[in-house]
Design brief:
- The structure is a single chain.
- The chain is of the alpha/beta class.
- The protein has 13 helices and 15 strands.
- It has 2 domains: about 5-50 and about 345-455, Aspartate Aminotransferase, domain 1 (Alpha-Beta Complex), CATH 3.90.1150.10; about 65-345, Aspartate Aminotransferase, domain 2 (3-Layer(aba) Sandwich), CATH 3.40.640.10.
- It has helices at about 5-15, 55, 65-75, 90-100, 115-130, 150, 205-220, 245-255, 310-315, 330-345, 345-370, 400-410, 435-455, and strands spanning about 30-35, 40, 45-50, 105-110, 135, 165-170, 230, 260-265, 290-295, 305-310, 370-380, 380-385, 415, 415-420, 425.
- The strands form 3 sheets. A 7-stranded mixed sheet has the order 4-10-9-8-7-5-6, sandwiched between helices. A 4-stranded mixed sheet has the order 1-2-3-13. Strands 11-12-15-14 form a 4-stranded antiparallel sheet, with helices on one face.
- A hairpin with a 5-residue loop joins β14 (about 415-420) and β15.
- α3 (about 65-75) packs antiparallel against α10, α4 packs parallel to α10 (about 330-345) and α11 (about 345-370) packs parallel to α13.
- The two termini are about 40 Å apart.
- The structure holds 4'-deoxy-4'-aminopyridoxal-5'-phosphate.
Length: about 450
């Protein structure tokens, strides 16, 4: 037992004492006990390679010694100030964070979760523009509080109560499952197997998806200004969906023509994860008006941020704005150390190199197995979509996904799941993984896929 609680007891207590809405991964769920860098250990002492990082959150490694030391030192001095007093940590951190952002993105608001950050970004955009309508993408995930759940376009996250009004979802520019697009439409070392008619530099699919956005303006918002357009740089919860090339740039231009602000949700794609840039939006050659960050920003410590321009930030002085824990000294000590480690340990280079290797190896799995419909992503933000056949692209049933998922876990590999039909494996590990870890991940997935094929053939 741990803390006087046995594994079986924990399962029972979870049903009785915790929210019934909590879902657990695995038929025999993992009870975690310890973590170190890319590794986690369960209550029996079994070690797993963690290729999901607590949902893309443990950016530089579980219990990274430097992060832990920074947190410990700060905890021994002062935990909490609230921002009604000054503390040097928050100033040092805000400066360091904004140094890493382009353009005039210079003002930080700290909070504690991604949902809070996007909620605040919605408020700011409405105050700044005086408009109230917001557009986001189908299949997007931006949070689960009262306002942000409205931004989400993933059906499984929708409750049967009215959301806030004024949110419009435009067609997702998905080159694999969407109406248009195919090979070369997305920015990934792995192309889709679907052909497309794009010329070298002109993505036809993008123009078609942009027309859909235009239709929202035409039919739902005639003559109306909008407050904001929200988008992830690669959709995370939605199943690592990359957009057709040039889509975000054109969408941003169109939204700005309507007086709206462009918000990049970097909760999953920020902090060098895509390997080529510090921020996911830079892959799309855009500079947003507001950037929201969470998860990897704190390596697992509750920390989130909204960064914007001085001009937009002023809107919040209209009334009192306050967040009790936002930017507390311990969170800032952690956040600041995470930024140092990303530079010192050359994580951008690692994400790029290991990410390419991993994607190459996973693409081989796609060619070997009929059930692997698509492999996509950039850097260490990867998706593997499982289908009943490459031709139909029908999602592999959830029970089959779960069997493969369980098999991977039994072999010591933790990955994630997502997508509208829950049929995309998500690989988003701590950024410190090595090539040997990537090879282990692919070997386990290959074995789990062949086990599945064998089971279904019998
Ligand atoms: N935005 C994105 C892109 C996310 O993936 C998430 C969390 N999955 C959120 C926002 C919300 O973050 P949180 O769970 O910290 O509220």
């Amino acid at each position: 037992t741990y803390y006087g609680i046995s594994y079986d007891n924990a399962k029972k207590m979870r049903q009785e004492r915790l929210s019934p809405a909590l879902f657990l991964y695995y038929k025999s769920p993992v009870m975690l006990n310890q973590g170190h860098m890319q590794w986690i250990w369960d209550h029996t002492g079994k070690r797993y390679l963690d290729m999901y990082a607590g949902i893309v959150t443990v950016s530089v490694g579980h219990c990274h010694p430097k992060v832990n030391q920074a947190a410990r030192e700060q905890m021994d001095k002062l935990w909490h100030t609230t921002n009604i007093y000054m503390h040097p940590r928050i100033h040092e951190y805000a400066e360091k964070l904004t140094e890493r952002l382009p353009g005039n993105l210079k003002v930080c608001f700290f909070c504690n979760s991604g949902s809070e950050a996007n909620d605040l970004a919605m408020l700011m955009a409405k105050l700044y523009t005086g408009a109230t309508d917001i557009i986001s993408l189908r299949n997007a995930y931006h949070g689960i509080n009262g306002c942000t759940v409205g931004l989400c376009g993933v059906g499984s996250w929708k409750f049967m109560v009215p959301g806030i009004s004024g949110i419009h979802h435009t067609m997702n520019p998905d080159p694999y499952k969407g109406l248009w697009g195919g090979s070369h439409c997305r920015d990934s070392p792995v192309q889709t197997q679907r052909q497309c008619s794009c010329e070298t530099n002109q993505c036809q699919a993008t123009n078609q998806y942009i027309e859909q956005l235009q239709e929202i303006f035409k039919y739902s918002l005639p003559k109306k200004r909008i407050a904001a357009f929200f988008a992830e740089s690669i959709q995370g919860v939605g199943g690592t969906v990359q957009f057709t090339k040039g889509y975000l740039k054109k969408a941003f231009e169109m939204v700005r023509e309507r007086g709206g602000l462009c918000v990049s949700d970097e909760v999953q794609t920020g902090f060098v994860r895509t390997g080529s840039h510090y921020w996911g939006f830079q892959n799309h050659d855009v500079v947003p008006d507001i950037v929201t960050m969470a998860k990897g920003i704190g390596n697992g410590y509750p920390l989130a941020a909204v960064v914007t321009t001085p001009e937009i930030s002023k809107t919040l002085s209209e009334a009192t704005f306050f967040n009790t824990f936002g930017g507390n000294p311990v969170a800032c000590a952690v956040g600041s150390t995470v930024l140092d480690i990303i530079d010192e340990e050359k994580h951008m280079e690692n994400c790029n190199r290991i990410g390419k290797h991993l994607l190459d190896q996973l693409a081989k799995l796609r060619d070997e197995f009929e059930i692997v419909g698509d492999v996509r992503g950039k850097g260490l933000m990867i998706g593997v979509e499982l289908v009943t056949s490459k031709e139909s692209k029908n999602p592999l049933p959830v029970s089959d996904m779960n069997d493969i998922f369980e098999d991977c876990k039994e072999m010591g590999l933790i990955i994630g799941k997502g997508g509208e039909s829950g049929n995309v494996f998500r690989i988003k590990p701590p950024m410190c993984i090595t090539q040997a870890d990537a090879d282990f991940c692919v070997a386990v997935m290959r074995k789990a896929f062949s086990n599945y094929v064998q089971r279904t053939n019998n």
